[in-house]
Amino acid sequence: MDIISGEALLLLFCFMLSCFLIFTITRSGRNSHGAFVLPPGPPRLPIIGNIHLVGKHPHRSFAALSKTYGPVMSLKLGSLNTVVIASPEAAREVLRTHDQILSGRSPTHAIRSISHQDASLIWLPSSSARWRLFRRLSVTQLLSPQRIEATKALRVNKVKELVSFISESSDREESVDISRVSFITTLNIISNVLFSVDLGSYNAKASINGVQDTVNSVMGAVGNPDAANYFPFLGFLDLQGNRKTMKVCTERLLRVFRGFIDAKIAEKSSQNNPKDVSNNDFVDNLLDFKGDETELNISDIEHLLLDMFTAGTDTSSSTLEWAMAELLRNPKTMVKAQAEIDRVMGQKGIVKESDISELPYLQAVVKETFRLHPPAPLLIPRKAESDVEILGFIVLKNTQVLVNVWAIGRDPRVWENPSQFEPERFLGKEIDVRGRDYELTPFGAGRRICPGLPLAVKTVSLMLASLLYSFDWKLPNGVDSENLDMDETFGITLHKTNPLHAVPVKKH
């Protein structure tokens, strides 16, 4: 028995040593054109590579490793070659200089489990005709300047409903769950643009929590570490449960979408006279679409809605919550933001989107929130379509490329006092979040930039300005601003682990 055990251990050791040598030789290899240099990175263990270094907060783990190995860092995550980008200069190379080569996608196991990579604006290859069609439809029918302007009154009305609900809570001297109410507001804005209905109610707590939990679960399943992303042959085991979560939660959302789609199809078939297209919502326009070559089927529409719905509701609501949390941690900054709003607004009573351009400090608060708390800290994983050189290092074909915008936003070589919430750093400067300044790209840049960027910025700015204009805010009894819990939960987006509660006090 001892001899068998000894032989087994020897064979295991030889196998692990062989794997280590293969990895080492591959890492220091040459191509047919001569020597090339792969990005530096931490030593790798056999089989698992660097998985043990990732942890529950990959953006933080990668940021710490980049301090040692540089802004273009190579990792081996099981069978997945990965390069992590952690400087504005390297980000520019990825998002602009080599945007076309690095615009591929690395769909996660959860995404593949529902075949979303075949019908998604986010996950389809940017070279495909379907991606170009989905992109064109999303921009022209939903996110063009003209369409966003046309839904301006809708956003103002939904924010008025938010203020009205908070006013009632203030009368009762109750604290408000900022995460919940901001989610309901963004949910109703998005659902009206998509379907012309409210999906959320401030007074139906159980129902809205179900929708919010479903969206959060989808975003978590997509972004959470998953053994199947690193070892595809383990996918059938679903060790982390991401595949099951993704299937259950997306089916729940798709049932909602199908209900609206079926109702609209039935309405169209029963109409004798065509509906006034000026009143069309996004689903109406998709159902009416007639393409030259590529036709849309119901499944395409459902998957496109899944992209718009989850990303649109999740990022804006979480950003507002982070902004309010930072202002409550920094009362002097909140007072300064409110003083600007009061000076500009006076007794107007309602903040409109046209007022935001006159509030540079508020805009700086929003930018500072995106710097410290980017909605997608690693953006969406990209994939190299061919070998490409980044700052002197070769990124091999099929390598996953992660741009750590969270690390760039907290880099002391880029930002003074990077861990401090200081909106003043943006005053008098042209830097913006629109994909031209690579030290601040929370929405990405290039052809893969988030098409919902203009709508997200408008929604967050309007909600935040309205909350600060109508109310003073304080933390519940027993909660100290200096020790406010700022723990975060990693997914494809970055959420505050424990929802923020704050007490509103009427100002007007």
Keywords, separated by commas or semicolons:
single chain; alpha+beta; Cytochrome p450; 5-stranded mixed beta sheet; 3-stranded antiparallel beta sheet; 14 strands; 51% helix; globular; metal-binding; Cyt_P450; Cyt_P450_CS; oxidoreductase activity, acting on paired donors, with incorporation or reduction of molecular oxygen
Structural commentary:
Belongs to the cytochrome P450 family. Keywords: Heme, Iron, Metal-binding, Monooxygenase, Oxidoreductase. This is Cytochrome P450. It holds the Pfam family p450. This protein is of the alpha+beta class and 508 residues long. The chain has one domain: Cytochrome p450 (Orthogonal Bundle), CATH 1.10.630.10. Helix content is 51%, strand content 9%. The chain has helices at residues 2-27, 58-69, 88-97, 109-113, 129-143, 145-150, 152-171, 178-195, 205-223, 227-230, 242-270, 282-288, 298-329, 331-345, 353-356, 360-372, 405-409, 453-470, and strands spanning 30-31, 34-35, 72-77, 80-85, 104-105, 176-177, 382-383, 388-390, 393-395, 400-403, 471-474, 488-490, 494-496, 501-506. The strands form five sheets. Strands 3-4-10-7-5 form a five-stranded mixed β-sheet. Strand 3 and strand 4 (80-85) form a beta hairpin. Helix 9 (205-223) packs across helix 11 (242-270) and helix 9 packs across helix 13. The longest helix has 32 residues, at 298-329. The protein starts with a helix and ends with a strand.
